[in-house]
Amino acid sequence: MEKSTPKTYKFKAEIKQLLDILVHSLYTNREIFVRELISNAADALDKVRFETVRGTQVADPELPFEIRIELDKENKKFTITDTGIGMSRDELVKNIGTIAYSGSAKFLEQLQKDQKGSIDQIGRFGVGFYSVFMAGKEVKITTRSANAEEIPVQWHSDGLGSFEISPVETAPRGTKIEVFLRDDAAEFGEKYRIENVIKKYSNFVPFPIYIDGEQVNKISAIWREPKSSIKEDQYTEFFKFLTNTSDEPLTYLHFSTDAPIQFSSLIFIPQTNYEIFGMTNREHGVNLFAKRILVQTSAKDLLPEYLRFMRGVVDSEDLPLNISRETLQENMVVSKISSILVKRILSHLSEIAEKDAEKYHKFWKEFGRIFKEGHTDFLNRDKFNELLRFNSSTHKDAGELTSLTAYIERMKEGQKDIYYLSGPSREAVERDPHLEIFKQKGIEILYLYEPLDEFVMTGMHQFKEKNLISADQADLSSLKDVKLGDDAAKEEAPKEENKREFEKLCRRLKDILGDKVEDVRLSERLTDSPAVLVSKDGSFSSQMQRLMTILNKDETLPKKIMEVNAKHTLIQNLFEIYKKNPKDEFLEKSATQLFLSAQLVDGYLVDPHQLVQGTQELLKNASSWYLEKI
Ligand code: ADP
Question: Which domains does the chain have, with CATH numbers?
Answer without folding.
Answer: 2-215 (3.30.565.10), 222-361 (3.30.230.80), 389-479 (3.40.50.11260), 498-629 (1.20.120.790)
